[in-house]
From TrEMBL, chain A:
Domain of life: Archaea
Pfam families found in the cross-reference section: MMR_HSR1 (PF01926)
Family matches, as Gene3D superfamilies: P-loop containing nucleotide triphosphate hydrolases
Residue span, G domain: 25-170
InterPro entries: GTP-bd, P-loop_NTPase
Protein name: GTP-binding protein
Species classification: Archaea, Methanobacteriati, Methanobacteriota, Stenosarchaea group, Methanomicrobia
């Protein structure tokens, strides 16, 4: 009997391994300083107890795509999804090393950072074309959402027919306006959160389980 | 003789763009913009071309040289589906008038649903 049970389990395990679907890769995209890494860190900390990468006020702190595998998120409704979180460098069409010099970084380091940032943006675009199954698009809700880079990136994501959740981040700040983001992207669900303070992240988790599940 | 300061503006027609492959379009735009010119496309780039344009722009950025592009366009419009489009299946979408220039020379002043206001400087 034990032999039969063990054999059954073995076969079932083998079949599962054989037909296992690749974990869904959810990319966190958006312009620089929208709070992508802060959110990635919160998701990973809440569900795995780890972190993805350092955060900073200086733009382009994330200059490499970072992936954290097998994160199981459970919504309040009890639904669960297992995903890979892909934290990406902020996408832009211009990078000037002087931007870093203004933050007190010396020229040599600023030039190095600018070069890494350009490579990071190119890498993020490549991932979007090849390896992403769904997108969390982060926006700073204190800023104008109609910036060209947002219109362009959301258009690129839509053209690839990827599901996209728009996050109106920094809703803890007094001049945050998630309504402006909702009016800019009425075709997608918009969730207002504060990745830093954790406001409303439960709703985001719930939406992620139903939207990407 | 006094030189008159100015900026060259190249208006590229939809017909010309239609004849080019994605990489030819991107190269045409970037080579022009890297010379300090402003490029206006009668018909904008498809999303995939925009994605590649960002990627290739990043490769061209150099310290104290080219610092990237500024680009403005209207969101892609879903074209009206005529009988033929329905018959052939699939929805066509239209890319729209686009202006691209060097990031250090072109600034967007105002962007509304139906009006884009930009400012061009000749200083490089």
């Amino acid at each position: 009997m034990t032999f039969l049970v063990r054999t059954k389990r073995k076969i079932s395990g083998l079949l599962k391994a054989l037909f296992k679907k690749r974990t869904c890769r959810i990319g966190i995209y958006g312009p620089p300083n929208a709070g992508k890494t802060t959110l990635a860190n919160r998701i990973v900390r809440d569900w795995v107890g780890d972190a993805v990468g350092p955060v900073s006020e200086v733009p382009h702190e994330t200059r490499r795509v970072r992936r954290k595998e097998d994160i199981t998120i459970t919504g309040q409704n009890g639904n669960s999804i297992t995903i890979d979180i892909v934290d990406t460098p902020g996408v832009t069409t211009k990078i000037d090393y002087n931007e870093f010099v203004e933050y007190g970084i010396d020229k040599e380091e600023a030039v190095k950072r600018a070069r890494e940032a350009t490579e990071g943006v190119a890498e993020a675009m490549h991932w979007l074309r090849e390896d992403i199954d769904g997108v969390v698009y982060m926006l700073d809700s204190t800023l104008d959402p109609f910036q060209q880079v947002n219109i362009m990136l959301v258009g690129i994501i839509e053209s690839r027919k990827l599901p996209v959740l728009i996050v109106a981040n920094k809703n803890d700040l007094p001049d945050a306006s998630p309504a402006r983001i909702k009016s800019a992207f009425p075709q997608h669900p918009v969730i207002a959160i504060s990745g830093l303070e954790g406001n409303n992240v439960e709703e985001l988790y719930e939406q992620m389980t139903s939207y990407f599940g | 003789m006094e030189m008159i300061q100015g900026v060259q503006i190249d208006l590229i027609s939809a017909e010309r763009l239609d004849r080019l492959t994605a990489m030819e379009k991107i190269r045409l735009i970037l080579d022009d913009v890297m010379e300090g010119n402003i490029v206006i496309l009668e018909k904008g780039l498809a999303p995939d071309e925009q994605s590649k344009l960002i990627e290739i722009t990043m490769r061209e950025i150099a310290p104290d040289g080219f610092s990237g592009i500024e680009m403005e366009t209207y969101p892609i419009k879903d074209a009206q589906n005529g009988f033929l489009a329905k018959l052939l299946g699939g929805k066509r979408s239209e890319t729209r008038l686009t202006v691209i220039g060097p990031a250090n020379q072109l600034r967007t002043l105002k962007k509304e649903k139906d009006l884009i206001s930009a400012w061009v400087s000749s200083s490089r």
